[in-house]
Automatic annotation (TrEMBL):
Residue span(s) of domain Lumazine-binding: 1-95, 97-194
Catalytic activity: 2 6,7-dimethyl-8-(1-D-ribityl)lumazine + H(+) = 5-amino-6-(D-ribitylamino)uracil + riboflavin
Lineage of source species: Bacteria, Pseudomonadati, Bacteroidota, Flavobacteriia, Flavobacteriales
Record protein name field: Riboflavin synthase
Source organism of the structure: Algibacter lectus
Record-linked PROSITE patterns: LUMAZINE_BIND
Molecular-function GO terms, alphabetical: riboflavin synthase activity
Length: 196
């Protein structure tokens, strides 16, 4: 389980294809605290650390993961949001994020500066999984726990404060950027009940 509170921004230093798998090597300030077999969320996707070398570590994404997330669009030097799994007894500062359970991808359709903050708008294919956002509910974008504003059937916006803008990869988003979405677990159940 994760909370959606990003710990570090990693930089992709190497990408190596092996059959249908992609080995992703990341340079990060938290590498020294990692160990082999540990789970780390990358843009909200839970992957297992398989190798560590100085300030870099490697994880492997399989075809299923690459097909359903934005990890298949990664390039060397890209920035990725990183979060280690939460410890039992930690404060839940964001919301309950399953990690590795990315529901689908979305496209950034607008970035608007708002006098000291930013408003990002994303659209997604509602028909793919019938996922809904809830006004003032939670959503995870690239692993970052956020509050939904302007919720619609197939789009929503989030307001980003300067701290989040500077400490996540939101500062790299522009129109057309593809992001990972994980819809709020509780919101999913409410939406399913409402459809009955």
């Amino acid at each position: 389980m994760f909370t959606g509170i990003i710990e570090d921004i990693g930089e992709v230093s190497s990408l190596k294809k092996e059959l249908d798998n992609l080995h992703i090597t990341v340079k990060s300030g938290i590498t020294s605290e990692l160990k082999i077999d540990q789970s780390v969320a990358h843009n909200g996707v839970c992957l297992t650390v398989v190798a560590i070398d100085n300030d870099e570590y490697t994880v492997t994404a399989i075809k299923e993961t690459l097909d359903k997330t934005n990890l298949n669009t990664l390039k060397v030097n890209d920035k990725v949001n990183l979060e280690r799994a939460m410890k039992l007894g930690d404060r839940l500062d964001g919301h309950i994020v399953q990690g590795g359970h990315v529901d689908q991808t979305a496209i950034c359709t607008n970035v608007e500066e708002a006098n000291g903050s930013w408003v990002f708008t994303f659209s997604y294919n509602f028909d793919e999984n019938k996922n809904l956002t809830i006004e003032k509910g939670s959503v995870t974008v690239n692993g970052t726990s956020l509050t939904v504003v302007n919720s619609k059937k197939d789009s929503f916006s989030v307001a980003i404060i300067p701290y989040t803008y500077e400490h996540t990869n939101f500062n790299t988003f522009k129109k057309g950027s593809v992001v990972n979405l994980e819809f709020d677990v509780l919101g999913k159940y409410v939406a399913k009940l409402a459809s009955l």
